[in-house]
Amino acid sequence: MNAVDRVNGPRINTINQVILPEVYQYTLDNGVPVYDISGGTQDVIKIELVFDAGRPYEAKKMVSKATTYLMKEGTRTKDSETIAESIDFYGATLKTSTNLDQIKITLYSLKKHVKQILPIIMEILEEAIFPQHEIENYQRNSIQNLRLDLSKNEVIAYRELTEAIFGSDHPYGYNSTEALYEGIERANLLQHYQQNIGHDNLTVFTGGKIDDSIRQVINESLGQFKRNIKQTLLIPGEPSMSTKLQLPSDNNYQTAIRFGRKLFNRNHEDYHAMYFLVTILGGYFGSRLMSNLREDKGYTYNVYAGIDDFVHGGYFYISADVGNEHVANSIKEIKSELVDLMEKPVEEEEMTLVKNYLMGNFLNMLDGPLNQSQVIRSLVSKGCEVDSLAAMIDSVKHMDTARLQAAAQKYLDPDTLIEVQVGAE
Predict the structure, then answer these.
(1) Same structural domain for residues 273 and 353?
(2) pLDDT (tens digit per residue) in 23-36
């Protein structure tokens, strides 16, 4: 019997290859594109319907989110309870969700029940009626949740940061308010539904035990959906200038600190370098910010840096919630880490560590057909080609310090960042 080595950790192996999924692409009878990943051992299927119908196409603020939630709360023949019971009867899960750019309908079902469930989805797509009492319930619940959120410094700081980056009238910058929720009318929802939920802007993503019989069932339902949409893309000018915002809060035990600036979408030439660079800065537990502010100084429980990217842009941010007595020193250390990346090349040991971390993330993201379908959906719905993931993996494998330092000098200068503090005065 071999003794367990409790002194030396397991050997770290370099990940040299990430096997990418095979994506079968085809179109339904109505021209809707489908991205299909078949695999797995269980008879489980995921079908995602993604409509380009988010905030950039709103005629009135907050309408896309409300439409997303309420479209499954009643049709001409079924109320919300009947719809929910019909889905539950087959042991399936149907949910609607939204991000800033899209409205999404997601179905998880056993393969044998897909044919019975898709007509329910078709009824939601074609005959949603947005009952007034459901709208009023949505408004009350949303306002209650908003009031709760606005008691949290971190939420206020996030809202202030994104508004400062994009502007209060930009789809990515405006914030929800009680007045906006109260101003939602049934006519607004019907208009957004009729003008933005159609076959013209629909993409379907499927994963799991997919075969020709399932593809035929999908085509017999979703392939017959026909509604020509009438969209207007609304992206106003978006000036973003460095500024400092300091806001008092009733919750004054901690201060929420945010730094950020406007960036770009995933198709930008500098996206891969910034993705790698931000991981070094604050994208994993061993990152520079975490090692400095948490492990070394004890200023915070968590500090993080990331990139949020959308179809029409994106932004970089740093997030930390610190004790009030540590605010000034925390800001000083954050800026010091930014300057360090600008002035000093990243050492090879750290480069190798982060490359292995990111390659491991790619492997985890692609574990199983349902996860693979989600990755493909994320790429395609943000305007990227399917093979862009391969390009990103290759870029990570061959990332060099000169490229990272150039990106740091271009985008991480502390003097160009917006700074937000929410907490004690």
Answers:
(1) yes
(2) 999 999 999 999 99
